[in-house]
Structures are given as structure tokens and as C-alpha cells.
Structure of Luciferase-like monooxygenase:
Amino acid sequence: MAPGRAGPAVLADSLELAGRLDRLGYHRLWLSEHHESHFCWAVPEVMVAALAQRTRALRIGTAAVLLPVRNPLLLAESFRVLEALTPGRIDLGVCAAVPLDPVALAALAEQPGPDVAALMASFDGRLGVLLDYLRGRFPDGHRFACGATPPFVDAPPVWVMGSGPGSAATAAARGAHYAYSLFHKGSRQDPAVPAAYRERRPDGRVALAVSCISADTAAAAAAQRRLVEGWLRDDMRVVLSGTHDDCREQVLALAQRFRADEVILLHLWHDPARRVDAIEAMASLIHPLAEPVRA
């Protein structure tokens, strides 16, 4: 959210941006979940519904829902409703992270001073339950066995977002697609991570999540990078920056190095006009070279 931008303007910018991405031929738009005041989306699935109704072909999803503090049944039913409203265009992305803000964490966990390690360790089990609800498959005698409604739609694709071998192994074991983050500082940026996922699940998709500062000139990109690195949290970093041509080459090189099916770009511009410029420039450079992708 840019300084001086009011909430309604940010919502309007997001709706306009989704329409622009749709027209430019982008494949997906994913929204994150954050509970700190400087980020916009605390409940991204609400915005997913609005954006999906404003677009025609663009897939809309989350990257990612904080599953350790979410109810799997409620999440499954929410995304089934979204899938019913816009069939074939919804992605459910989840991760093992929890809110950084301690007050928000305690409120969502419904306990004071929750055990963060225990919450994060619950991710695999919660993911399994979420998938059981979505797929309508539970072991015999399971105490929470029930199907997520509405039952007349297919479950949307599920993606696991992560930055290391543990998340890749979980995604492969649970039959989910995998998005590998390079912009979290905990990421080793190791091609072996998505390679291990592919070995265990050859039919799964791999997306590479990259933070990007793309500008008309190298000087403008460098100035924005200095500014961004002054306020980025300790767990994030800028992966690539430069002119639009520079960023294009870097994106293509990363996609080849990591054998990624897709690259997800996080454009680090607060200024909506600069962000739109970067998105349009990258679309004109990359999209014509991209192969058609499946869900």
C-alpha cells in the first residue's frame, strides 16, 4: 500500500490491475495473507471472489493462506464456493507460516502466547485434512469425516508455497503443486529443491516465486532497490532488478536454471503507475515466449 493511498483507492487499483493482467494474457494472479497493517489482504479469499468476477480468463488464487491458523473445513468450503462461482479459474495456495504480529497470531490461534513451532509443525497434518475435505476422502471411522460443500463442483488445484526441501517434500507427498520462493531469506535458492519435488511427483507443476524491481532505466531500478531494502522485513529480499530488458533475461535464466513451469513475479513498486509500467513491460517481453500452461 503506497503512502497516502486510502483503502478504497487500493481496492480500486487492485480491481483495475486484475482486468489489465487479464487483457495482457497473464495466467495467474495470487494474493497473500498478512495481518500487519502495512499489507492489504488479511482474508485474501474475499478479494479472490471480487477479482474473479471482474476477469474472464485469469486464474485467481492465494499465495498463500496461513494454514496453521486456519480451519481446514471452512477453508475447503470457501474455495469450493469460489470454484462454483468461477469454474476452472481458482487456485488454493497454502503455506506453513503464521502471522508475524504477536497480537494477530494469538487472536487467530485463540490462545495467548501460542507455540509457533508447534503451529508450524501442524501444517502437514492440516494440509492432509484440507485435502481430505476437498476430495471427499477420509479414512473409515474418522471423527471429522464429512464432505466440503458445495458437493457439485470439482476441488480447485492446491499449491504448497515454501522455501526449502521440507515444503517440497510435503507438496509431493500430498499430491499438491509446488511454488518455490526465492525471495524469502530462508530460501537456499537451490535448484535441487524443485528437482526433488519433480522426482517424487513428475505430473506436478513447479512455479518459481521471484521479487522484482523492473524499471525503464537502471538508475530508476537501483534507486527503488535502495528504498525497498530499507523497509523490507528481515525475512525477505530483492531477487532481481534492472531495466525491463535486464529483468526479462534474468527471469528466463532463472526459469531455465530451476526448470520452472511458471515464474510468479512480486513487483516491488508501491507506486501503482510504476507497477503497471513494469507489469506491461514484462508481459510484452515474456508472454510471447511462454508456452501454453495447464491448471
